[in-house]
Amino acid sequence: MLVVSRRNGESVCLGDDVKITVVEIKGSRIRLGITADEGTLILRSEKKTDGVVKPPEKRPAKKAKAA
User: Fold this and answer.
1) What is residue 35's predicted lDDT score, i.e. its pLDDT?
2) Closest CA to 42 of 50, 34, 31
3) What digits encode the pLDDT tens for the residues 18-38?
4) Contact (Cβ atoms closer than 8 angstroms) between residue 41 and residue 63
5) By the 8 A CB rule, do 23 and 12 touch?
6) CA distances from 46 to 12, 39, 50, 52, 57 (A)
């Protein structure tokens, strides 16, 4: 495992297609932004079971607010 230190606003690139940026650090929580090609599957580790990827859950589309 490679361990790197990053500050708020700094990034790490994985290959040519994935960029992970530290968006916010608040206490012991870190928010990450991930930029990747549209076809790249990105899952949190708890969404994987024994190396098998669970299919993503479909979320209902957000409704536009009336003006």
Assistant:
1) 95
2) 34
3) 999 999 999 999 999 999 998
4) no
5) no
6) 22, 21, 10, 11, 14
